[in-house]
Specification:
Blueprint lengths: L1 H25 L13 H9 L5 H7 L6 H11 L6 E5 L3 H7 L4 E6 L2 H12 L4 E5 L3 E2 L15 E2 L1 H4 L1 H5 L3 E6 L4 H11 E10 L7 H5 L3 E8 L8 E8 L1
Parallel strand pairs: 1-2, 1-6, 2-3, 6-7
Antiparallel strand pairs: 4-5, 7-9, 8-9
Length: 238
């Protein structure tokens, strides 16, 4: 019952914000084009009317992390135009990263989302996205702690970084089975590399972060499309 109420509330919010955005654009209160990200409050307010719209986020040129994390990673990538990146969880962030790095490999677990985004992915020459759906299992080797994901094994998904091979300057952990993904990321991270771990304030992720052996910088605050504060952590070798 609780899950049903939450889904209905989320659906109503998304629908309401998109309707509001259409109305504000019709009244010329909002422009069709997003404001620059340097005008953070305006950019954030505009983004609220584009919630769950990855194509709009591509146009806004933002990943789905906190603004402070976005700014920090963009600064970190400057001078690293040939950076090699691996990403757990594809989307607008995949395009954002590919515009700023030499090579981006991403893994996606959801076939419907992958097919929806596929034309955008394939238009970016230095981006490769692998679809790896979880396997149904009574005894998952790598389970996900997310609600509704029980009985699914993400072992092959998590191992995608090993199939890509080599080391990575930047690894983004923003998909499923994040604890196991982080453990694999640490093994593939360049000595001076960086891990972006999104939604890091969630209690189920804290043990993996705290036992990773990496130094944590917490970036909290506004996030594109979200009406509440969030946290993205930047993890680096000690």
């Amino acid at each position: 019952m609780r899950d049903t109420v939450l889904r209905m509330s989320k659906s109503a919010y998304v629908s309401g914000m998109k309707t509001l955005g259409s109305g504000l654009r019709a009244l010329h209160v909002l422009d069709d084009a997003p404001p620059p990200r340097t005008a953070r409050t305006k950019h954030w307010f505009y983004s609220l009317t584009r919630v769950y719209d990855p194509q709009a986020m591509i146009k806004m040129d933002v990943p789905w992390w906190t603004y402070d994390a976005i700014d920090a990673v963009e600064t970190w990538l400057k001078g690293r135009e040939q950076a090699r990146i691996f990403e757990y969880g594809s989307g607008a962030s995949s395009l954002w990263l590919a515009r700023r790095a030499g090579e981006v490999h991403s893994v996606e677990h959801h076939e419907g989302f992958y097919e929806y985004m596929r034309p955008s992915f394939e238009a970016q020459d230095n981006l490769s996205v692998e679809l790896v759906e979880p396997e149904v299992s009574d005894h998952p080797v790598v389970p996900s702690q997310k609600e509704g994901q029980s009985g699914l094994d993400f072992a092959d998904y998590v191992a995608a970084i090993d199939r890509a091979g080599g080391t990575f300057d930047l690894v983004v952990v923003d998909g499923r089975a994040r604890g196991a993904s982080l453990a694999h990321a640490v093994q593939r991270l360049a000595p001076d590399g960086l891990v972006v771990f999104d939604n890091s304030r969630r209690a189920r992720y804290r043990p993996a972060i705290e036992s990773s052996g990496l130094r944590e910088r917490r970036c909290t605050g506004l996030t594109p499309t979200l009406p509440y504060g969030e946290q993205t952590s930047l993890l680096s070798p000690v």
